[in-house]
Structures are given as structure tokens and as C-alpha cells.
């Protein structure tokens, strides 16, 4: 009987093709010039060291800080890229105004949603959106230090590997390891919180947190994920000239371009460009450098099928490669999982997170699922606070 919800959820997901590329933005902040706070790492070429090594830190410029932070910093740290090579990531560290409790501040690693792939889209160099500001301020007021990775390649050399679970896991876990080298009064207890693209990043990091932090003394406790993309890869590989010849809402088309850009960079051996039209290749190139708002303007009215000269599935091995590249794990977790989902979410449809929940249940994972009937993708973030706050307190005891 436990398998029936899984079958129903996956069948329903397959009917959600109109929202195939729906991984919504982190309620994008107004476009502005990046503020690097004296730590511009876009062309960093110095030594890197082991994953989680703190390479540099500086005070964060007040214009890109949070109102509830007593102090804030921009950091550069070592991690790994999509090719398994040493890489760097930047991030922000926000410290509450309240004094540190005995044992130090517990830590929340924040995994951000879609901002874009270009260096000008780096979250720690831009003002946070109103929603993210309110949300992160909430956790600061609860007494948590917030460590917010930008992810490898976003504001550092290389391309940010959009929706890749391995890079996200390393970027998030390594940011917390680096923060513990800053001389701040931090507890070893830590948890992960993420939304949308960041929810997928948070769950991938949660699945590997104990493994990747082994030997560091860190004590990983659990994860909160809202608007989680899951099982989307099983529709992505079906893209091609036979895809419905309609113009999807601009946001959905943006995510399609980011997926193709990130996947092409991760798997150059598959020659994804060989199944794209010249126009499709031009779109992917723009996606590599253009932030969400700008890319939305670029692709408005575009028909994704016009980007392809042949089906993506005509590339041998592409289906398995996409699953490896962007799947959200449903088993192997060793700490509690909080999933939050709005039923009015048209960006990441409820069937996506619902199918993941069913898979997790079937796999016997420590998961709880909170549904918000009157909330859309963005609204679920703040609506989940009354449930996620006690969840966080419970797992951090």
C-alpha cells in the first residue's frame, strides 16, 4: 500500500509538462551593480587547499547586509566544482545582535534560490530581496548565525553549476566548515535551510552533510526545504523540437536556459550543443552570463522547441547523465527533513515535492511534509515559519 502514493505522484508529475522547467527565482532583488565589499574573487588564482578551507574574509558592506545582523562578513573558501576539481566559492556570514549563548551560536546554512549564472548575480554582492531579508532576519532574531553560500562559480572562476547536487552539497557544507575558522563563537550544531533551487541544494547537502563534514567536529542536525524541485530531470531529457510549440511564461523559459547552460558545462563530452539550433546555442550562451531579470526579458515569448534541431534524448546516455546531474535524493538521509509546499505554487508544482515526499516515505526517511493551501511558491517561504521554527528548535537541542 505504501507504493501507491509514489505511483500516483510520479504519474501526475509526468502530466506537468507545462511547468517542466519551473524552478523559481529567489524573489529576485532589484538589478543593481554588485558590491564586492573589498573581496572581488571573480578572477581568483591563488592557492585553494582542502574543501572547507577559509581563504579570505572581510566585513560585508552595509548595503548588502541584513538589518538584524550585529556583524556580517564576506568570505572566500575552498570547495569543489562539477568536475571534481578544487574550486572556490564566496558567501556571506551574518551574526545576530544578541550575545552568543553558552556553547556558541548554532548555525543555519542558507541555500539561495535562482538568481542567475553570471558573476553579477552573486547574492553576497547584492541586496537581498524583501522576502529573503524578512526570512533571514527571522532566523537571526532566533539566535542563529546564518552562513549563506553563493555556490562555486557564482562570483568565482568557472560557471555556477545550476541544479547540480554534488556542487551544491560541497558548496553548502564547505561554507559552514569555513565559517568555523573565522574566530566567531559558533556552536558545532548546524542545520540547513533552502528554498526552490536552494531547496534542492539543501537536500543534496543534507544527504551528504555527515559524510562531507566528517573529521571537522561539526554536528549536523537536519534540513528545512520549501518549494523543492524533484523528479524534473525525467521531463527535461524529453526536450526537443517535438516539445509543445507554445510560449511558456517567461520565468519557466529562463530556467530551461539555465539548466541547458549548466548541464552543457558539466558534460562537454555529450556535446549538448549538437542538438541545438543556432538560435538555441545563442540562448544558452546568454544564459551563462545574464541574471534572472535580464534573462527573463531575453526569452519572453520564446518557444523552447525552437531551440532544438534534434531531441535531447537522441544523445546516447543523456537520460542517465541528467539524473546524475540534477536529481534530488529521496533516500540515505540520517537526520530529520522538513518539506514545505504551497498548493498554489505554479513555479514548482505541488506534485513535484509531493512525489519526493512519497518516495521518501517509501524509503523510510525521517521526513515531515507541511502543505500550505493558500500559498504560492514565494509565499510558502514565510508561511512555513510557524512550523519550521519549532522544528529547528527541536533538532538543535
Describe the structure.
The protein has helices at 3-14, 130-141, 165-179, 197-212, 233-236, 250-266, 278-287, 292-299, 318-326, 350-362, 379-383, 385-395, and strands spanning 54-59, 69-80, 86-96, 105-111, 145-149, 186-195, 219-226, 337-342, 367-372. With 397 residues, it is α/β, with parallel strands linked by helices. A 9-stranded mixed β-sheet has the order 1-2-3-5-4-6-7-8-9, with helices on both faces. It is globular. Residues 1-25 have low confidence and may be disordered.
Core attributes:
397 residues; alpha/beta; 2 domains; nine-stranded mixed beta sheet; 33% helix; disordered N terminus
Largest sheet: 9 strands, mixed
What is the CATH class designation of the largest domain? Alpha Beta
Rounded to the nearest angstrom, the distance between the terminal CA atoms is 35 Å
Strand content: 15-25%
* Element-by-element helix/strand order: HEEEEHEHEHEHHHHHEHEHH
CATH architecture of the largest domain: 3-Layer(aba) Sandwich
Structural class: alpha/beta
Amino acid at each position: 500500500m505504501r507504493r501507491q502514493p509514489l505511483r500516483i505522484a510520479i504519474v501526475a508529475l509526468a502530466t506537468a509538462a507545462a511547468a517542466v522547467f519551473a524552478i523559481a527565482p529567489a524573489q529576485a532583488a532589484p538589478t543593481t551593480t554588485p558590491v564586492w565589499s573589498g573581496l572581488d574573487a571573480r578572477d581568483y588564482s591563488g592557492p585553494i587547499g582542502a574543501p572547507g578551507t577559509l581563504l579570505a574574509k572581510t566585513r560585508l558592506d552595509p548595503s548588502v547586509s541584513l538589518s538584524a545582523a550585529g556583524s556580517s562578513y564576506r568570505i572566500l573558501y575552498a570547495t569543489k566544482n562539477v568536475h571534481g576539481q578544487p574550486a572556490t566559492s564566496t558567501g556571506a556570514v551574518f551574526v545576530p545582535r544578541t550575545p552568543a549563548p553558552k556553547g556558541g551560536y548554532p548555525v543555519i546554512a542558507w541555500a539561495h534560490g535562482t538568481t542567475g549564472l553570471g558573476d553579477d548575480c552573486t547574492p553576497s554582492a547584492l541586496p537581498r530581496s524583501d522576502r529573503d531579508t524578512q526570512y533571514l532576519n527571522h532566523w537571526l532574531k532566533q539566535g542563529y548565525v546564518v552562513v549563506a553560500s553563493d555556490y562555486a562559480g557564482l562570483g568565482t572562476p568557472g560557471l555556477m553549476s545550476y541544479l547540480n547536487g554534488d556542487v551544491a552539497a560541497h558548496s553548502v557544507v564547505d561554507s559552514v566548515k569555513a565559517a568555523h575558522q573565522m574566530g566567531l563563537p559558533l556552536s558545532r550544531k548546524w542545520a540547513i535551510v533552502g528554498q526552490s533551487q536552494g531547496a534542492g541544494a539543501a537536500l543534496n547537502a543534507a544527504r551528504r552533510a555527515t559524510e562531507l563534514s566528517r573529521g571537522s567536529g561539526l554536528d549536523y542536525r537536519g534540513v528545512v526545504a520549501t518549494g523543492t524541485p524533484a523528479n524534473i530531470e525525467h521531463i527535461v531529457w524529453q526536450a526537443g523540437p517535438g516539445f509543445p510549440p507554445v510560449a511558456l511564461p517567461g520565468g519557466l523559459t529562463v530556467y530551461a536556459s539555465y539548466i541547458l547552460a549548466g548541464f552543457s558545462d558539466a558534460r562537454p563530452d555529450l556535446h549538448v550543443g549538437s542538438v541545438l539550433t543556432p538560435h538555441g546555442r545563442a540562448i544558452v550562451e546568454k544564459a551563462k552570463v545574464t541574471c534572472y531579470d535580464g534573462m527573463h526579458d531575453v526569452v519572453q515569448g520564446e518557444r523552447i522547441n525552437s531551440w532544438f534541431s534534434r531531441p535531447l534524448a537522441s544523445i546516447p546516455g543523456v537520460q542517465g547523465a541528467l539524473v546524475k546531474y540534477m536529481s534530488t535524493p529521496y533516500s540515505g538521509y540520517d537526520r530529520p527533513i522538513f518539506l514545505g509546499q504551497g498548493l498554489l505554487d505554479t513555479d514548482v508544482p505541488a506534485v513535484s515535492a509531493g512525489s519526493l515526499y512519497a518516495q521518501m516515505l517509501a524509503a523510510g526517511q525521517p521526513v515531515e511534509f507541511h502543505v500550505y493551501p493558500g500559498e504560492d511558491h514565494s509565499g510558502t517561504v514565510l508561511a512555513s515559519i510557524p512550523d519550521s521554527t519549532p522544528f529547528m528548535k527541536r533538532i538543535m537541542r
